[in-house]
Automatic annotation (TrEMBL):
It comes from the Bacteria. SUPFAM superfamilies: SMAD/FHA domain (SSF49879). Residues 121-186 are annotated as: Disordered. The keyword Zinc does not apply. Keywords: Phosphoprotein. Residues 161-171 have a biased composition (Gly residues). This is Phosphopeptide-binding protein. Pfam families: FHA, FhaA_N. Residues 123-138, 172-186 have a biased composition (Low complexity). Residues 147-160 have a biased composition (Pro residues). SMART domains: FHA. It comes from Streptomyces monashensis.
Length: 281
């Protein structure tokens, strides 16, 4: 069983459905868990053949509405997320320089349903943390500078400067002033929609999640589709991001985890074809 699935089952099994109310918020805990996994992957530093170090101190920035919903459970949720990171690191053979911590913070520049993750490598023997450089994803940002190293350790290579784009939801929206403008809602300058088996589904928000779960924005009844399979983020340009699905996504004939979309792009999830559309006016 995958680490994310185990994490989700642990949450569902908590006392009297404590997290039931939380799951109604735009940001789902399992989405944050997936984002933390990618934060580890994108900031993993190979020291030698037997040791790959990843961040151990994480801050999850949430919009004000999502923070209000999740903050009453921040202690339990932070512990569960830290446990998930620990399990994932064991699976990937990653190591840490100190205890794993996950904290939630409110970010006034984020809209409901969007979040970003910041991480750093914090050595347990030092009170001074040297944070990770930003990864190549919008707003996934570390605080700049190489991670701290124990005495005698070989120097770490500098991480490349951040750039590029990754959808929100499972992704990390850029901080205020750096993010592209949010896509206009239906009836605005540009209209966005998808077509599945001849049925049109309007995209009226900045993000749209496709999946087999009833929690997905557009539900696709296909056994080859994961519960939360992928996410479309509208903008300039629009993008699609795989959400850690079992079978992945194919965009315009190419297997990928992330791609830029254009009007008429063909997206294959499971055995279902989705046509992405956008038009001015």
């Amino acid at each position: 069983m995958g680490v994310l699935k185990k994490f989700e089952q642990r949450l569902e099994g908590l006392v009297n459905g404590t997290f039931a109310k939380v799951f109604k918020s735009e940001v789902q805990p399992v989405e944050i868990a997936g984002a933390l996994q990618r934060e580890c992957d994108n900031n993993a530093t190979i020291w030698n053949r037997d040791r790959t170090v990843v961040p151990n101190d994480f801050i999850v920035e949430l919009s004000a509405p999502d923070y209000e919903r999740l903050s009453p459970y921040s202690g339990q949720l932070g512990d569960e997320l830290a446990g998930m990171v620990r399990d994932y690191a064991k699976q990937q053979r990653y190591t840490f320089m100190g205890p794993i911590k996950v904290n939630l913070e409110k970010a006034e520049d984020l809209d409901t349903g969007l979040y970003r993750v910041r991480s750093r490598t914090l050595a347990s023997s030092s009170s001074q943390a040297a944070p990770q450089a930003p990864q190549a994803a919008p707003g996934a940002g570390g605080h700049g500078g190489p991670p701290a190293m124990p005495a005698g350790a070989p120097p770490m290579p500098s991480a490349p400067p951040g750039g590029g784009a990754r959808p929100g939801g499972y992704g990390y929206p850029q901080p205020a002033g750096q993010r592209p403008a949010a896509a206009p809602a239906s009836g605005g300058r540009t209209r966005y929609w998808i077509e599945i088996n001849g049925t049109r589904h309007q995209i009226s928000r900045a993000t749209l999640v496709l999946g087999r779960s009833t929690d997905a924005d557009v539900r696709i009844d296909d056994p080859g589709v994961s519960r939360r399979h992928c996410e479309i983020r509208t903008g300039t340009p629009s993008t699609i991001q795989d959400l850690g699905s079992t079978n992945g996504i194919v965009v315009d004939g190419q297997h990928t985890t992330r791609a830029t979309l254009r009007d008429g792009s063909r997206i294959v999830v499971g055995s279902t074809t989705v046509i992405y559309r956008q038009a001015e006016g």
